[in-house]
Design brief:
The protein is α+β, with helices and mostly antiparallel strands. The chain folds into 4 domains: 2-89, Phosphorylase Kinase, domain 1 (2-Layer Sandwich), CATH 3.30.200.20; 96-282, Transferase(Phosphotransferase), domain 1; 285-421, TolB, N-terminal domain (Rossmann fold, 3-Layer(aba) Sandwich), CATH 3.40.50; 473-739, Serine Threonine Protein Phosphatase 5, Tetratricopeptide repeat, CATH 1.25.40.
Length: 741
């Protein structure tokens, strides 16, 4: 390098280093002949050796012919002492990267202008047969306030350099935060669509203040470019016009064929709504999110009522044909987190937001509601209701019908009337049911116990209230198999209450789903469980839990393609559900598609960083797929979280045994055996520990005990990867036959 600088000294006065990258070191210099500032980029010796001097000089010469007001030209190139270099004018206005480091977000008009100017140069180069491959803020420079794209042709010249896109100093063929999925995955078909994706990343960052995809390491970012969908732009920059968000979203499509055909098409779409956006808007205006009503009263015990009204309105509006309603899980994830309605609209992909407050004083109610457009933030309708508690049904009906009427008056005369069915006219029973659901949704042992008390009181008030029986069934059925408790009594009561609910009202989809889950996970009656799941889905195709649980039954039968369809259907219906996202991880784990399983568990952890079960399942997947060090780290982290129990310690023991260390498993077994004298321990935990210790006979002994206790773990006997070591044992095959698998 020093010799090269010395040789260049005859023509250039080298002043200082401007920067270092993955391919080159950049020096600021003054050209002696013309007395002008230039940037000299000297390729790293290993890069230059790989490219070859002849090819480099030939292709740089071709690139130098590109002449456009928004491209930084190449004015010289050469070889000296075996070192390759090229020269371009020094642009004094700094880079877009420096601007973003300082300002984070740019004004929308300015961001669009910069994209237009860079896009004009990029489109010119594409029409002349060149793809840039490294569009990023550091390569966008400013001259007299106008944007110029630098380094054209360099990535093209170096496209054959090495086999690993990562180098010690940076990125050889692109920068991870701006790499297209095909580029990040090492694809050979890297064309115009790659530059469109990169420019889309740049526009996203100019508006949002952060790249669309990020991560702790370059490799993680590259992997996420292939699999992870960016957060909606308007969720980070609410004032972004919908047509700009749509244009950027299309530019960032994972598949090249789903992006714009040209950069010119992209920049045109940034400037004005297209007919495609207009058509899309027609669909979007049929969508609404009911945000959790705010309890504005002094008594926190009334929160059940505000949450209950929210649930009732979601349920009523969800039954309106032609209107899409954001799921309960998605909207309740926003509870207590004030945000701009435009950001919420982008996050939930809805065009209207319904908000409300409730204040109760004795039997007096004051409810205020307002309907707001997420496109403009403009208020569409608002009203205040001063009524008695006994009028709460009438208020809910009036709100739902007014919303539908308002939408009809604006754009959609074909929307149907809302269906308002509650299953009881007893206001006291209804209030107790709401209290029960409010407690049950905490998903804690204390919350479930409290919920049971309220559901029982609701039934005392109205013995014909089917939904109250469904609440009891859910309370006794859900999560029993994942707790260190006996399951017989719980599932017996769950089935009885679900059947009672169906006796009162056969059309309750939730009751069919709960009964189906008990028949599947406890009775192992595959045919009846399947029929109940299908009935639940037929009654309410939009109830995500039916699809979620049915997916597990299908997976247990080895019908993985069908299982994954049901799992993804549940996720589409309730994209904000951590439980459903974690379920997808389980399904891919059983299907032995470990990379996809990891992806969904990582997403679940991002959605709720303190959900212990997500860490435990991720740790299990990592261990089974051979990533022992990472599995150990994840499981140790899980042990520090609230709710961590014996299942997590047993999973850690298995992970360490698979890595070659069985001592932790031996110690854990000793502790569990001692507990048996005074406490219940699930046979599933012992079976897993004996897998870790390599004692197949003991594994089957404890699996037989699990069979006797009807643990739900047995349903996955044929597909669970942890049981591979005993799969060919004769006693195990007999057990599979007994299960009717």
């Amino acid at each position: 390098m020093a010799e090269a600088l010395e040789a260049l000294g005859e023509r250039y006065e080298i002043e200082r280093v401007l920067g270092r990258g993955g391919m080159a070191v950049v020096h600021l210099a003054e050209e002696r002949k013309h007395k002008r500032k230039v940037a000299i980029k000297i390729l790293r010796e290993d890069v230059g050796a790989s490219v070859g001097a002849e090819r480099f000089l030939r292709e740089i010469g071709i690139a130098a012919r590109l002449s456009h007001p928004h491209l930084v030209p190449l004015i010289d190139s050469g070889e000296t002492n075996g070192i390759l270099y090229y020269v371009s004018p020094y642009v004094e206005g700094g880079s877009l990267k420096e601007r973003l480091d300082r300002d984070k977000q740019l004004p929308i008009e300015e961001a669009v202008r910069i994209a237009e100017e860079v896009g004009a140069g990029l489109d010119y180069a594409h029409r002349n047969g060149f793809v840039h491959r490294d569009v990023k803020p550091a390569n966008i420079l400013f001259a007299d306030g106008h944007a110029l794209l630098a380094d054209f042709g360099i990535a093209h010249v170096c496209s054959d350099y090495g086999t690993d896109p990562l180098t010690e100093g940076g990125i050889a063929l692109g920068t991870p935060h701006y790499m297209s999925p095909e580029q990040a995955s090492g694809g050979t078909e890297v064309g115009i669509a790659t530059d469109i994706y990169a420019l889309g990343c740049v526009v996203y960052e100019m508006l949002a203040g952060q790249p669309p995809i990020s991560g702790p390491t370059a490799l993680v970012v590259m992997a996420r470019q292939v699999t992870l969908k960016p957060a909606p732009l308007r969720s980070l920059r609410p004032e972004t016009p919908p047509h700009i968000e749509h244009a950027v979203s299309r530019a960032l499509a994972k598949l090249p064929e789903h992006r714009f055909e040209s950069v010119s098409d992209f920049t045109t779409a940034l400037n004005r709504p297209t007919t495609d956006v207009a058509r899309r808007g027609t669909t979007v205006t049929r969508s609404i999110a009911v945000l959790p009503f705010v309890d504005a009263g002094p008594d926190p015990d009334n929160e059940y009522l505000s949450d209950g009204i929210t649930d009732e309105l979601i349920d009523a509006l969800a039954k309106v044909e032609g209107l899409r309603v954001a799921s309960r899980t998605s909207v309740f994830a926003l509870k207590g987190k004030p945000q701009d309605v435009r950001a919420i609209g982008a996050l939930l992909d809805v065009s209207e937001i319904l908000e409300g407050t409730l204040r109760r004083s004795g039997q007096n109610l004051r409810i205020t509601v307002q309907l707001t457009s997420t496109a403009s933030g403009a208020l569409i309708w608002s009203h205040r209701y001063d009524r008695q508690l006994d009028d709460v049904f009438a208020i809910q009906d009036e709100i739902a019908r007014t919303i539908v009427g308002t939408l009809r008056a604006t754009s959609f005369a074909d929307l149907a009337e809302p269906s308002l069915e509650r299953g009881t006219d007893n206001i006291k029973a209804y209030g107790l049911y709401l209290r029960g659901r409010h407690a049950w949704k905490k998903r804690t042992p204390e919350g479930v116990a409290e919920g049971i008390r309220f559901f029982e009181q609701a039934i005392e008030e109205d013995p014909g209230y089917a939904l109250a029986y469904t609440g009891l069934a859910d309370s006794f059925a859900l999560s029993l198999d994942y707790r260190n408790v006996e399951v017989h009594e719980g599932f017996k009561r769950a089935k009885a209450y679900a059947r009672k609910a169906l006796e009162l009202d056969e059309g309750v989809a939730e009751a069919h789903a709960t009964l189906a889950w008990s028949l599947f996970i406890y009775d192992w009656d595959w045919a009846k469980a399947s029929a109940e799941f299908r009935r639940s889905i037929a009654l309410d195709p939009r109830y995500p839990t039916s699809h979620q649980w049915y997916a597990f039954l299908l997976a247990s039968q080895g019908r993985f393609d069908e299982a994954l369809i049901e799992g993804h259907t549940a996720q589409d219906l309730d994209s904000g559900s951590v439980s459903i996202r974690r379920s997808l991880g389980y399904l891919y784990f059983y299907a032995r598609r470990f990379e996809r399983a990891k992806y969904h568990l990582l997403r679940a952890i991002e959605m709720n960083p303190v959900a212990e079960e997500s860490y435990r399942v991720l740790g299990l997947i990592l261990a089974v797929s051979g990533e022992f060090e990472e599995a150990d780290r994840v499981l140790c982290e899980a042990l520090e979280l609230p709710g961590a129990a014996t299942y997590t310690r047993v999973t850690l023991a298995l992970a360490r045994s698979l890595a070659g260390d069985r001592q932790y498993a031996a110690d854990s077994l000793e502790v569990l055996l001692a507990r048996l004298d005074h406490d219940y321990v699930s046979p599933v935990e012992f079976a897993t520990l004996y897998v870790a210790l390599g004692d197949n006979a003991k594994v089957i002994d404890w699996a037989e005990k699990a069979y006797g206790e009807r643990r739900g773990w047995m349903a996955y006997l044929n597909v669970h990867p942890v049981l591979d070591s005993v799969r060919n044992e004769p006693r195990f095959r007999v057990l599979v036959q007994k299960m009717g698998l």
